[in-house]
């Protein structure tokens, strides 16, 4: 079976990174219909926190399918979904204990915006340059990582304004850590003074670590300042933890690195163990302001996926997943710093846990997307699947239970590519 024989039946709007046709996948590896085996460091773009076909997830799904597939969560309650909602509440920070389950990240973002607007009675939303929140009309409206995601779709959702995210490697204000005065947060003063009054802003939505924008980690004092501004003006803070949550950064939620509890949090990707699931999580006080019937879902809270989600939490508890994430993440980052010292084409290494990226640069420091893309192509040719993000960043989306041996194998391929480059 070849992809080209079927491509005419699929919309070309979806970007295809490869033409590989996968047949099966286990752990870190995908096998194609031709029998070729690839080390997968994309993992559904951080979806498979436990790798492909983890035995606990497979077993849980099989057992649930044999009992009940679906009957609509607004008609009956599902035992695995109820159990999962309680377990999730035991992990979420602060008073974020009430969940609304949906299918994908963008859907959760749309719901979070609706909740913020109805709970505050305000319409304005402030988002960040470099952000990525999804591709629905609502999620596209608050996405600022590329103009291409909005091209041809205007008018999008009104009431959205953008401010700068602290991309310290390429600071817009040419500041260094020792002389930074958080000039980027002062842009909010201009927005409040010239564009929208703060008492008309429902929410500020941000990724605590930007994903698609380039795996960018903001300074802690920046995040604290955003929380302070929200508190001052009664603005809700939405954290999009769809990629950064669920252990990816070495803590269960990235917000824990900043000692911040948002008012609303969105989860997705890893939450369902490879199955489509997302969640909007907030406080009982805010959720009680969401009028009954003004939001809904057909497949949200699906019992089979909830069974998988429970199995994911079982594995986290029983297999020291976050411990492995921190140990292997530290090891990987150290090795990448060694690459940076040896190869001038690498300008920056950044990230937390196993949410790590390396940025490729030209000799004059400009972003070098060509070099990054050549490395990705080289890796694929050598049976290693990698993806980029930002303008010129190579990102690692390994499973959180990845082994040192598989990391070493990937590093060997990448270094051969760097030498070739």
From TrEMBL:
PROSITE patterns per record: AA_TRANSFER_CLASS_3 (PS00600)
Matching Pfam families: Aminotran_3
Entry keyword Secreted: no
Pathway(s) per entry: Amino-acid degradation; 4-aminobutanoate degradation
Signal sequence extent: none
Recorded superkingdom: Bacteria
Catalysed reaction, written as an equation: 4-aminobutanoate + 2-oxoglutarate = succinate semialdehyde + L-glutamate; (S)-3-amino-2-methylpropanoate + 2-oxoglutarate = 2-methyl-3-oxopropanoate + L-glutamate
EC numbers: 2.6.1.19, 2.6.1.22
GO molecular-function term, one example from the UniProt record: 4-aminobutyrate:2-oxoglutarate transaminase activity
Cofactors demanded by this protein: pyridoxal 5'-phosphate
Keywords: Aminotransferase, Pyridoxal phosphate, Transferase
Sequence similarity: Belongs to the class-III pyridoxal-phosphate-dependent aminotransferase family.
NCBIfam families per record: PRK08117.1
Protein name (record): (S)-3-amino-2-methylpropionate transaminase
